[in-house]
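Lab meeting prep.
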Amino acid sequence: MRRHWLLSTRPEPSQARLEWQEHGVALLPLGTLFSAVRIPGRLVHAVAESEEPDEIGGFLDDALDGGPVICDPHSLRYYVLVPASMPRAWHHAAGTWRTQLDVELLGRGAHLGVPSLQHIDHNPRAYPSHWAVPIHSPATLCAPLRIARLLTMAHHTLAEETP
């Protein structure tokens, strides 16, 4: 069910299935069923007070109330899946996040490399990207207010660390 929901973003779902089989990641368009918030790893590590993948996954699961999060360990970025409407509804906040925190709200016109649902191993050598917090059911996404709280916490944490 979760797989079918993700695949339905593509006009040819079979191509995305093939990408998952061959590469472990399928490039899916954003802005129809879901969008994403790209958060630099340094922010997540600062608020989680850890760089250990299992601890970060647990922290994000709690902070985002189980909302799905993808980790790209090679670029040290996290992608939080959010409602497709978030880029329009939160565009003012997104401008502040971009300038102050280097956080990007990705929606219509953007694509995201989404790992296979089995890629939940937090070993960066195991997969090109993985689910830091797995998607539990179709259309269960992170609440925008939870993201805003996490980013506010990150901003305050970084401000306290700067002399």
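Slide two material, second protein:
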Amino acid sequence: MDLFFFDFDKTLYAYDSRKRLPALSIASGVSQYHIAKTWWQGGFEIRAESGEWPTAVEYLAEFERITGAAITLEQWQQARALASTRIAGSIDALRRAASIGTACVLSNNPSVFAESLPVLAPDVVAIVGDNRLVSCELGVRKPDPQVFELALGRFNARPKDTFFVDDSAANVAGAASVGIHTHHLVYLNGVPQVDGLHAAIERFAARKK
């Protein structure tokens, strides 16, 4: 059966950090600029996405240690939700993929995201179920080809029977390097071009096997 990997941020859900940081600041009492400088610019989010702090509890404890911002899981989720907006056409594409094969989320994100996805995007989880692969669990981030090899291994799938979509050209190139069929979800004037995604899925499904 065909396998479909979908990125999450800016592919299934739009993401805007400008809405997230103020919410974290209000919840913690720490300046959003300090949070951004110490955590994100300090490289800690990338480390978290690569597998450090493998539980939400550990992530939030490290977040507080580095930034001084003490937040609960619920506050983290609320801030993340403010920054995330579903892309209806992409959700429809995910649903279509699940109807003709196995659909899975493949995302660069930390453990707190992995544990929170059912809260942040219940519509996505309703479609993919437990088929959710997050870089923190794989121990490596896209676009490293190893991510895709590990993901294929989870499903015992062949690259030629696998489709991957992402808004990042670098991530798309990483998937293509191991032989996976790919689609780059491009934005035009800030709008994701989901018609091209739907067409790419249909071409992939209709290919000669």
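Talking points for slide two:
The chain has a mean pLDDT of 97.
Strands lie at 3-6, 13-15, 84-86, 102-107, 132-134, 162-166, 181-184, 187-188, 191-192.
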